[in-house]
Hints:
The chain is of the alpha/beta class. The chain has helices at residues 39-49, 86-92, 113-118, 134-139, 154-161, 180-190, 194-214, 239-246, 253-259, 290-293, 302-305, 314-322, 327-342; strands at residues 13-18, 23-27, 61-65, 68-72, 79-81, 99-101, 126-128, 144-146, 166-167, 223-227, 232-234, 264-267, 279-283, 309-312. The strands form three sheets. Strands 2-1-12-11-10-13-14 form a seven-stranded mixed β-sheet, sandwiched between helices. A five-stranded parallel β-sheet has the order 7-6-5-8-9. A hairpin with a 4-residue loop joins strand 10 (223-227) and strand 11. Helix 1 runs parallel beside helix 6. The two termini are 32 Å apart.
Amino acid sequence: MRHPQTDGTGFSAFGVVVRAKPSSFVDRHFLLRSSIRAAGCFLALFLCQTGPSRGDTDAPLTLDHRWGETRFAPAPERPVTLSYIGLDIFLALDLVPIAYRVWFGGDENGLWPWTKAALPADKRPIALRGEIDVERVARFRPDMVEAMFSGISRAQFAALSHVVPVLPPLKGDGDFGITWKEMLVAVGQATARQAKARKVIDGISTRIDAVRNAHPGWAGRTVVIALPDGPVLFGENDPRVALLSELGFTLPDAARALSRGNFYFKLDKELTAPLEADVVIWLDFGGGMAGLKDHPLRHTMRIVREGREIFADPVMSAALSYGSPLSIPYVLEQLAPRLEQALDGDPATRVSGF
């Protein structure tokens, strides 16, 4: 996999089709990121590799990465981010790049509500769409290029590195294997904003803890996050599922057994057991929920009879998929009330739409 497809819906990744004999397939609707289970190990490894923190000083810093090391001057004034969630990372650190990469959807500039809310009104960074254009990026005369979550090739990295310090994927990460926490740490170090990065991470962790602690009954409850077409279910390594796990939820045993470490898998319609969770969150990336109407056995499922489905509109679906330091608070604010409604034990309770 080289890069997420940006054809208006969003991602490219690999999963399995669950039949009698599973086979792999490629879905072109949105990106699936690497294992959150390994995120803590990757983050600790990265912090060790980069050496002792310099604090928020003016001293240059050398960061190790997949293809060697790059030396960064502090306080860049003209950064460019090529990562698909890079703008969110920079804005979380109170930095505005001169150009950013559009992933999918959003407004005419590829911006979602959580990003627009954080973007200063007097700043208008340039939106970059499609494949990485080395020459165009160079013409911006940036003093830093961040590309940890971009699908940048080694040839593109080498070409850009002749004119500007570039931060590609870190050691141990795939093209899209880095987490938002790792990105914050790396960009924070490269821009002398380590303290701000730590503050953001601690703040989001505190908000997650607050929601979980306010709902002790969620501990051990099961959740499935899925796309209607297929349906497609997300495995425990997917960052959307990982966020719900931080709130106390877990995958049903039937879904975990079928995921086999994949980020997602396609389920044949005659198999309904993996969908029988305490709550199911259906994602909509613009295609609507028509796929559910075509499911021949959906009417037989307890989740339907007991009103335990949540239908996430395209904005919430994107917020869950971005999983950025800006979108996660949006998810917590919007999703928690729906989870309460779905899990109140009363089938008559209507789960409000997004």
